[in-house]
């Protein structure tokens, strides 16, 4: 994680620097905004700017926007002045930190930026195969193409590969080829010299040079113009780039990871993507299945997001009810993990009672997800059945039985008696199974209180 500290603050930021470095950050200093801009243009880059609140933060925000430099700003000051903090936030800062700095607060801010809430969470075998391949090739310098529908987590996987490579301690630089206008993308990638075009007020180092020694992620590369693809091909082949307006080539040392939500073979046939570039990028293809084809990941991710957003909003972490689980499992998730995350964020905020029930699983406009008119109920049921069947194929009976017993026990909060009743087995059989799993090193939910659930009615009562 790269931290740029802007300002002096009578030595107070020296303490912040020490704390940041202890938390694994690479720290660069700039005394004022002009020097900060020179640092950012010069290729060192920054994942976070820690800026003296006495400086003109609004001016800094405008300068960054004018030169298409993207980095969050955290303001800091030697007094806990509420007015100064509010002004800094209004000017464009993401947060305000009073100085002298609290070590835990600085560490939390750095962790938030470094992790960026992009944890790799999976359980389904379909995703496990992709992760295994990613682990096998992470240590090489081979170019990687990551494909999959929008929202499946392509950038998350790209960072996963980077952090397990020999380049892990060097920069991970990402650029979205679809989000930057065509006439600016070349400059963003390769940089430019002063006066190369209108608005080029100073030399600017591009993403290729900024990523030297590390990894460059070309997100949604299928959206790149064919003309620029030829220049990219040369950069990958010869490991040199030409800045816009430059007169001599600049050597670079990077690993390329590219992503696409389109079929690039079809794009080659249509003439919108160069075949030779595809061959260069597609040394290894990591194809992420859509969430609807990873049924076990749906509930695993849902629980992860519940915990995440409950903590973020200061509310209790509620379990997901059985009915809500059925709703989640039967949805198509056209937006994949991104859609599921938003849904669970809403659920955390809307849930009432001790559980997250189906009434809290809502669409963005407030309708219950299982009652939404976008997909007929029959289609929901058919799809749910297909997902269950797909999850069982290829697994042993013993594995399926184990998962069923443990999931039922989790649902019952560890209550052995209640779980045995639901499973239709004796409590003795259940305990024997749990002892067997425990001996095999499998974690077992702790025993719950017998009175937590109502007793099952006796037959004939």
UniProtKB/TrEMBL annotation:
InterPro entries: AAA+_ATPase, AAA_lid_NorR, CheY-like_superfamily, Homeodomain-like_sf, HTH_Fis, P-loop_NTPase, Sig_transdc_resp-reg_receiver, Sigma_54_int. Residues 120-349 form the Sigma-54 factor interaction domain. CDD domains: AAA. SUPFAM superfamilies: CheY-like, Homeodomain-like, P-loop containing nucleoside triphosphate hydrolases. The keyword Heme does not apply. Residues 2-114 form the Response regulatory domain. It comes from the Bacteria. The modification 4-aspartylphosphate is found at residue 52. The keyword Transcription regulation applies. This is Two-component response regulator.
């Amino acid at each position: 994680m790269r931290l740029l500290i802007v300002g002096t603050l009578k030595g107070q930021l020296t303490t912040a620097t020490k704390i940041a470095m202890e938390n694994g950050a690479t720290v660069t200093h700039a005394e004022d905004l002009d020097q900060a801009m020179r640092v950012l243009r010069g290729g060192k880059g920054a994942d976070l700017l820690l800026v003296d609140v006495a400086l003109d933060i609004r001016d800094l925000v405008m300068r960054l926007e004018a030169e298409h430099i993207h980095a969050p700003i955290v303001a800091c000051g030697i007094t806990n002045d509420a007015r100064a903090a509010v002004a800094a936030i209004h000017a464009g800062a993401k947060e305000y930190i009073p100085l002298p700095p609290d070590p835990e607060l600085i560490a939390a801010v750095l962790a938030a930026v470094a992790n960026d809430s992009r944890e790799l969470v999976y359980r389904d075998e379909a995703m496990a195969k992709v992760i295994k391949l990613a682990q096998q090739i992470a240590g090489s310098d081979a170019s990687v193409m990551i494909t999959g529908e929008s929202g499946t987590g392509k950038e998350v996987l790209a960072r996963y590969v980077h952090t397990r490579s020999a380049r892990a301690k060097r920069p991970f630089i990402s650029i979205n080829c679809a989000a930057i206008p065509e006439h600016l993308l070349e400059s963003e990638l390769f940089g430019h010299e002063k006066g190369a075009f209108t608005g080029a007020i100073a030399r600017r180092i591009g993403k290729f040079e900024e990523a030297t020694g590390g990894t460059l992620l070309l997100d949604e590369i299928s959206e790149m113009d064919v003309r620029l693809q030829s220049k990219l091909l040369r950069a990958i082949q010869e490991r040199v780039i030409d800045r816009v307006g430059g007169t001599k080539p600049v050597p670079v040392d990077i690993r390329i990871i590219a992503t696409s939500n389109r079929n690039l073979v079809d794009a080659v046939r249509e003439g919108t993507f160069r075949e030779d570039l595809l061959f260069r990028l597609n040394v290894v293809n990591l194809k992420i299945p859509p969430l609807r084809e990873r049924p076990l990941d749906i509930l695993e991710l849902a629980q992860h997001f519940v915990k995440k957003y409950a903590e973020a909003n200061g509310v209790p972490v509620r379990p997901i009810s059985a009915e809500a689980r059925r709703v989640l499992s039967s949805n198509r998730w056209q937006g994949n993990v991104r859609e599921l995350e938003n849904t669970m964020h809403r659920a955390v905020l809307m849930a009432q009672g001790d559980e997250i029930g189906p009434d809290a699983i809502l669409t963005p406009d407030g309708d219950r997800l299982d009652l939404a008119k976008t997909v007929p109920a029959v289609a929901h049921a058919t799809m749910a059945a297909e997902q269950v069947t797909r999850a069982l194929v290829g697994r042993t009976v013993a594995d399926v039985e184990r998962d069923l017993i443990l999931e039922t026990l989790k649902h019952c909060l560890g209550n052995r008696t209640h779980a045995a009743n639901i499973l239709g087995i004796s409590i003795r059989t259940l305990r024997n199974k749990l002892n067997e799993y425990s001996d095999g090193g499998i974690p077992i939910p702790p025993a719950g209180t017998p009175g937590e659930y109502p007793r099952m009615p006796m037959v004939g009562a």
